[in-house]
Amino acid sequence: MSKQGQNESKPPLQHLAIIMDGNGRWAKKKGLPRIAGHHQGVQAVVQVVDECVKLGIGYLSLFAFSSENWGRPKQEVDALMELLLQFLVSQRQKMLDNGIRLRVIGDRSRLSESVCRALTAAETETAAGRTLTMILALSYGGRDEILRAAKKLAAQTAQGRIDLQSFDSKQFSALLDTQDIPEPDLLIRTSGERRISNFLLWQAAYSELYFTDVLWPDFDTRELHRALEDYRQRKRRFGLTDDQLDSSETLQPQGENPLNSVS
Ligand code: IPE
Ligand code: IPE
Ligand code: MG
After folding, report:
1. Based on the structure, what is the number of domains in the chain?
2. Is 218 a catalytic site residue?
3. Is 149 domain-assigned?
4. What angle do CA 252, 142, 227 make, to 5 degrees?
5. pTM to 2 decimal places
């Protein structure tokens, strides 16, 4: 007889990505300063991470701070960085105990030295984690990431290390910050905005999108399950026909467009 282990059933998906939006509006509605919304947002992160571990989801990407967010008032930027440092300290033991591996994507050159140091330390310390890879997008913009990858490609080409004739999208993906991370199956955005705001532009090409009016600090386990249930109803075609998909034995578990392999 099988045990009722929580990780026994198949995980609903491999990679979940979330644009955590609405902290400021949540605070405003309550007559609180914006930073109070960010604080509450951290509680939502903790809940969602715990649930992803329980569900056996392999990768969770969280958009925490965009390249455009640098333009916010210094006081808010500083408070967000401080919150990040506190988060790393408060979650350290839990990450280690639960096998959570931290990965950071984004332009680190814009982050302060102390934040960089704390991030690198947390990444190194949790590197052996095999349960959930938590990807924090910090100082991250999809265009910036693609541009940095293009510059790497140009430099490697100039050094004669690349054969442009055979260079394909898989090789380009390997130049992105997300390198070895599978593409997101589902991308959730909270707070009622229906846009991508420069998140995972390349990687989300075939992600299912889910928008909810719930503000991020109110996003909880129930809301997560609602999104996952919605995802279960989707049919992912990757540009192919239903008949092709029905007869295919090799469905693309990582959201990769099978047409890539034909081109
Ligand atoms: C998302 O909440 C968190 C960050 C962008 C850092 P916002 O701060 O954007 O909250 P709203 O959109 O102003 O309500
Ligand atoms: C996107 O939210 C970035 C993060 C959630 C970190 P924003 O609040 O910055 O996005 P816009 O400005 O509404 O597009
Ligand atoms: Mg916002």
Report:
1. 1
2. no
3. yes
4. 55
5. 0.93
